[in-house]
Amino acid sequence: MKRLYPVFIAVPLFVAGYGQETAPLKLVQTIPLAGVKGRIDHMAVDVQAKRLFVAALGNDTVEVLDLQTGKRLHTIAGLQEPQGIRYVPEIDRIFVASGGDGTCKIFDGRSYQPAGRVNFSSDADNVRYDPVLTRIYVGYGGGALGIVDAAKGTLLGEIKLEGHPESFQLETSGRKIFVNVPTRQHIAVVDREKHAVVAKWPVSAQANFPMALDERNQRLFIGCRHPAKLLVLDAQSGKMISELTIPGDTDDLFYDASRRRIYVSCGEGFLAVLEQKDANHYQPSGKIPTAPGARTSLFVPEMSHLYLAVPRRANQEAEIRVYNAK
Predict the structure, then answer these.
(1) From CA 97, how far away is CA 237, in angstroms rounded?
(2) Which residue ranges of the chain lie beneath pLDDT 70?
(3) Backbone dihedral region for residue 124 (phi beyond 0: left; psi -120 to 50: alpha; all else: beta)
(4) How many angstroms from the chain centroid is the CA of residue 313?
(5) How far apart are alpha carbons 13 and 19 in whole angstroms?
(6) How far apart, in whole angstroms, are the C-alpha atoms of residue 213 and residue 223?
(7) In the prediction, which pLDDT does 10 show?
(8) What pLDDT was estimated at residue 21?
(9) I need a surface site. Which of 6, 103, 274, 300 has the fewest CB within 10 A?
């Protein structure tokens, strides 16, 4: 008999219902990005030195921010639509994937000087790091993950996909990579030892862009834009577990394992917070007003902070808003 899973539809909850002191996320700092224009894409962090790296796509720069002082330390200029970014502390290198020229540029983590470059066909996008094998994975082009030796800065190979990859997640205790392929409306399951797709799981909504993984409970969280949904899938079988309504235009989401929460940043102008009751049951826990276009974010569990990128629009200057997870 086919098992039926419960479906939970979110009822919007506004942070005003909690009060600032009891909200699941509390705004604790705002870092201005004076002169930064256009869309802001993904971010990375140096936890030890407390630096935030911001891919300012529309500004063709990476902005380096001091999280202790709330000031800009440096601007890496001359990029072409930087999108994905990753800091690797073991080798003190910053990896920046740019959509405009299809490159993954490597920079020294102290001097910010160029330290290498890997060329892809086009549209270099999301970046992930495998610390066990010291490999960088870059989603790019019409459908592939590029594999880069992080220490040497050399291309090792690629994994073919059926469409351009958006967010993807690597298992830490296994060898799978889960990849959102929105143009095919599926999730590609990759065996990173075989360098091959071993399964394709269809999703029930379109524009599946962000993704997070709860490896302990084997749950995969998928953010979709059409309609605006959060899908919860079994990470072993791909079966749907739950479906929840979220605000529109999401581009990042994160799983907070210690608090059993999911944070979703949405360009409609909200941060959605959802609570994991157990592996199969989820409910909305907050809907926090932010700003139009603020759809990219980064949750750093070691610091209990979520960083939200707010782009420059009308009277709103570009900035990073820092929220403390309570």
Answers:
(1) 31
(2) 1-21
(3) beta
(4) 22
(5) 12
(6) 12
(7) 36
(8) 58
(9) 6
Q: What is the pTM of this model?
A: 0.93
- Reported for 289-295, long-range contacts at CB under 8 A and 24+ positions apart, including other chains, are 289/14, 289/15, 290/265, 290/321, 291/316, 292/267, 292/268, 292/316, 293/39, 293/267, 293/269, 294/265, 294/267, 294/269, 294/321, 295/249, 295/250, 295/251, 295/252, 295/265, 295/266, 295/267
What is the C-alpha to C-alpha distance for residues 79 and 64, in angstroms, rounded to an integer? 14
Distance CA 134, CA 96 (A): 16
Joined tokens for residue 90: 């073991």
Token pair 């902005």 in the structure block, residue: 63
Give the whole-angstrom CA distance, residue 161 versus residue 165.
Answer: 8
Q: In the prediction, which pLDDT does 23 show?
A: 84
Can you give the pLDDT at residue 56? 98
Distance (Å, whole) CA 188 – CA 23: 36
Phi and psi angles of residue 149, each rounded to the nearest 5 degrees, phi first? -70, 110
CA distance 45 to 33: 17
Q: Are 187 and 220 in contact (CB under 8 A)?
A: yes
